[in-house]
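Action item from last week, closing it out:
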Amino acid sequence: MSTGHGTHRLARGAGLNVVGAASRSGGSLRGLLPQFSRYAVVSALALGLDFAAFLGLNGAIGYPTLAGVVGYGCGIVLHYQLSRHFVFATASSAKSAHRRFGEFVASGLIGLAVTAVVIAAATGMGAAPIVAKVMAAGASFLGVYAIRRAIVFA
């Protein structure tokens, strides 16, 4: 499913401007959509695992922030495996697999921090844990995709 065309790669020094990257790589925003769609599917699968772990652990121990962190961690592992096979072209990458995995985990830790902060803040303001988790998932999804596209799989 991942192509070797490189049309979704960023130019060096492009930063996190994902929309601008599509134009610079010779494609358009339309060229970004297939990759973003695959990333969304992979994210949905990882999020399903994340939510299952969150709901099970929160039900068992009653600590939504901890449950959110554990669920997110489970999702990271699944997401990496699916991303490298179905979303991003890695065969032509000069980056070692160890480095790429390290960067993937680091980007996941940024998402993890966003998840924990959003859940803690939202539940602290009275939001139900599931509402807080949905908010955290949205914020983390967009930020982490931009990092992974611009840095990890670039």
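Closing note: The chain has five helices and no strands.
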